[in-house]
């Protein structure tokens, strides 16, 4: 496992206890994904659903009620997240890596994955999802595009040259990786969704609470000094909206894919 991946996994492990309470935008994005799933439903019964990067499982609750899969493989690489997933006789919790799935070829009917693959190499993640899906199987995926947290990236630009916000891949990169992995694109949609808070401090606290904070190059950085922090706050203020809230944009990419038969 690379140093960066260990760093991301540790951030999600630490965030597990606070994740659900802070994951309002993530719930909204799961609702978007569920609408897409309903527009592209499986043709037959689902014996095995893979929830790839399942987190605490809360995001997939409504999916479960609608889809009623016989078995769910709830996979995550952060043990802290998995420990909070309810799991039961039909929901099998699996600690594993999306880029190297511990499942046989063609063993899964449907993949659901919300806001997890952006931490992966697109080619490797898509190849693995394509490998484990049965021919004709569906994958419903959300990920984040390049404009995610652009306000924060801009605000940090004047402070130092560290990578405070990771770069996110374009929708085109995800589509090309999917096609190379043997998928047909059934639908792609990209639109911004905003998290909001009263202050920049609260916005950053919320991002930290879901585990997505300061995951840049993986290097540990020194905390910002007082004047750098004040400069950051001043720059960010220009984004304050008419409703007095400060936004943080999530550039959401929603994909419906089908494994070529
Ligand atoms: C933002 S959370 C989303 C959780 C859940 N899908 C939801 O919608 O609430 C991202 C999850 O992906 C997991 N994750 C990130 N990279 C992963 C990888 N390479 N393999 C497995 N899980 C991964 C993290 O541990 C975390 O639980």
What does this protein structure show overall?
The protein has 261 residues and is an alpha/beta fold. The protein has one domain: 3-Layer(aba) Sandwich (Rossmann fold), CATH 3.40.50.150. The chain has 9 helices and 7 strands, in the order ααβαβαββαβααβααβ. The chain has a 7-stranded mixed sheet, with helices on both faces. Strand 1, helix 3 and strand 2 form a beta-alpha-beta unit. Helix 5 packs across helix 7 and helix 6 crosses helix 9. The longest helix is centred in the first third of the chain and has 20 residues. The chain starts with a helix and ends with a strand. The model has no long low-confidence stretch (mean pLDDT 93). The protein binds S-adenosylmethionine. The site of S-adenosylmethionine has 22 residues, from helix 1 and helix 2.
Strand count, sense and barrel status of the largest sheet are: 7 strands, mixed
Strand count: 7
- The oligomeric state of the chains shown is single chain
Radius of gyration equals 18 Å
User: What is the H/E order?
Assistant: HHEHEHEEHEHHEHHE
Query: At the first level of CATH, what is the class?
Result: Alpha Beta
For the largest beta sheet, what order do the strands appear in spatially?
3-2-1-4-5-7-6
Structural class of the secondary structure composition?
alpha/beta
Our count of domains comes out at 1
Into which percent range does the helicity of residues fall?
25-40%
């Amino acid at each position: 496992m690379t140093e960066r991946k260990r760093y991301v996994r540790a951030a999600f492990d630490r965030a597990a206890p606070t994740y659900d309470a802070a994951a309002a935008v993530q719930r909204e994005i799961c609702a978007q994904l569920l609408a897409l799933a309903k527009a592209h439903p499986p043709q037959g019964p689902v014996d095995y659903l893979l929830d790839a990067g399942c987190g605490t499982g809360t995001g997939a609750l409504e999916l479960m009620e609608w889809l009623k899969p016989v078995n769910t493989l709830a996979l995550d690489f952060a043990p802290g997240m998995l420990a909070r997933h309810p799991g039961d006789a039909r929901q099998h919790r699996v600690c594993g890596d999306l880029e190297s799935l511990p499942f046989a070829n063609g063993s899964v009917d449907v993949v659901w994955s919300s806001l997890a693959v952006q931490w992966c190499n697109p080619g490797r993640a898509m190849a693995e999802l394509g490998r484990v899906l049965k021919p004709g199987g569906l994958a419903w995926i959300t990920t984040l595009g390049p404009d995610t947290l652009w306000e924060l990236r801009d605000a940090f630009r004047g402070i130092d040259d560290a990578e405070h916000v990771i770069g996110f891949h374009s929708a085109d990169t995800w589509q090309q990786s999917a096609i190379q992995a043997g998928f047909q694109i059934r639908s792609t949609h990209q639109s911004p969704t905003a998290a909001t808070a009263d202050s920049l401090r609260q916005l950053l606290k919320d991002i930290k609470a879901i585990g997505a904070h300061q995951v840049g190059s993986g290097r540990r950085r020194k905390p910002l000094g007082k004047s750098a922090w004040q400069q950051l706050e001043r720059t960010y203020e220009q984004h304050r909206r008419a409703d007095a809230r400060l936004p943080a944009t999530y550039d959401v990419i929603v994909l419906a894919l089908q494994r070529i038969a």
